[in-house]
Amino acid sequence: MKKDYPERMPLSEVWPLFEARGLAHLSTIDGNQPRVRMMALNTHDNNLWLVTRSGDDKIHQIQKNPKVEFTYAVPGKGRTGCLRATAEAVIVDDQKTRDSVVASIPWFTNYWKSSTDRDFTLIRLDLKYIVFDHHETSAKYTIDL
Question: In whole numbers, what is the pLDDT of the chain averaged over residues?
Answer without folding.
Answer: 95
